[in-house]
Amino acid sequence: MKARFYTDLQVRFMVGEDDAYGFALGVNNLFDTKAPGCVTCDINNFDPTVYDLPGRYLYARATVRM
Predict the structure, then answer these.
(1) pTM (2 decimals)?
(2) pLDDT at 53
(3) What is the DSSP secondary structure assignment for residue 9, as one 8-state letter?
């Protein structure tokens, strides 16, 4: 089995007095690297106990510190 490299990226910034507000934007599996197939698995040729769900996904987060 050849090696696979997964890339995650996140940008965070804090604003307001005492950095009370935080914002984050990110992407997991930036280059959409495919997980290796599994011939003995029941679920779509994929082993969820070893790898995260396949595919790229984006997310956003906002936090408020009180």
Answers:
(1) 0.70
(2) 67
(3) E
Instruction: State how far the Cα of 31 lies from the Cα of 17, in Å rounded to an integer.
Output: 37
Mean pLDDT over all residues of the chain?
85
Residue 58 and residue 32 in contact, taking contact as beta carbons nearer than 8 Å: no
CA 37, 42, 47, 48 torsion-angle sign:
positive
Q: Where are the domains of the chain?
A: 9-64
DSSP string, 20-40: -EEEEEEEESTT-PPPPP-TT
Cα(3)–Cα(37) distance, integer angstroms = 13
> Which residues are within 8 A (CB) of 19 and not within 5 positions of it... i.e. 6 or more apart?
65
Torsion of the alpha carbons at 45, 49, 50 and 56, rounded to the nearest 10: 70
Considering just the CA atoms, what is the radius of gyration of the chain in Å? Answer: 17
